[in-house]
Design brief:
The chain is mainly alpha-helical and 349 residues long. It has a domain of 59 residues. The chain contains 13 helices and three strands. Strands 1-2-3 form a three-stranded antiparallel beta sheet, covered by helices on one side. A hairpin with a 4-residue loop joins strand 1 and strand 2. The chain starts with a helix and ends with a helix.
Length: 349
Amino acid sequence: MTTYSIHLYRNLAFLLIATSAFAKGPADQSVATIIDTTGTISTKKEPKNQKQKYPATSQIDVSSATISAPAQTITQTTVPTQAPAKTADASLKKKKRSRSNKVAQIKEKKPKKKTISTMNYLELKEGKERLMAAGDKEIALKYMQKMVPLCTDLSELCTLMVELADTLLETGSPDEAGTTYLEFTKLYPGHEKVEYATYKAIECRFNRILSADRDQTITREALELTEQFLARSDVFTTHIHDVERIRDACRTRLLESEISIASYYLKKGSFDEAEYRLTSMRSTFVPVLPSSEPDILHLECLLAEKQNNTEQLLKKQAELSERFPATNATHLITAQMAKKSKKRSSDRF
């Protein structure tokens, strides 16, 4: 039996009892009705100032009564109760905690992407090979630089150092490449690639030499490397001709630099400094670069002329004309002598 039915039966029973009481008893008689949850209604009449006419209690069983009532639609409205502030805050915190836990779980599930600094040697090697195959040499270079201190295999380390130096040279870092080549030749002088590494180190230096009027430190370094290479010509045979060409070019550039300095001293009138330079040039370059002697003789003639040393001047002019008649220096001296002789003749007349 539903709540609605119980209420309906109770109201109906109350009406029936009230009607019966007014019909059979005094008007001032009050009726007390007791209804239990089973649908049984108990009534008790309490008369005022007279004896009870009817039984004290009567029971009406309405459980078997048939009641026809129009169909009604009952809509129950639930009024939300407002939770206390503390409960709402606790619930919000719980939701935030749950959300943060889910985010943490998602992050844990995602594999962390390794960087170059956290990779081991094998991972770096695989990454380097993949990048080299793709042609990304600049990024592969970073992998190689990280691999060198981690490599424990001597043979693989030798190959890696040469590859690193080659990549540095190809990516536009000749200084670092030359340093790496030289380091390789010092660490592994007996390796099969030491000739190649030495030659490439020479090339790196030679390609950076400056003009004759500038500092020649790099030129001297390149010359020294060529001499070291050629000192092992019995072993280094593959690039020997290229190294000899570079050596002569370095000597020529150094000679040009010395000629420039000596000419400056002559123009300035610093004859002692010019003479010192010419003496040094003759002892340094003539034995190894015979083609330098005509230029040195030409400067010696100019020095003698500036010093008004006629005897020395005629001596150097004769030596230059006899030994190097077809050189530019001889032609210059001859032209200068003819010009001065013509000027003397004109001054006489």
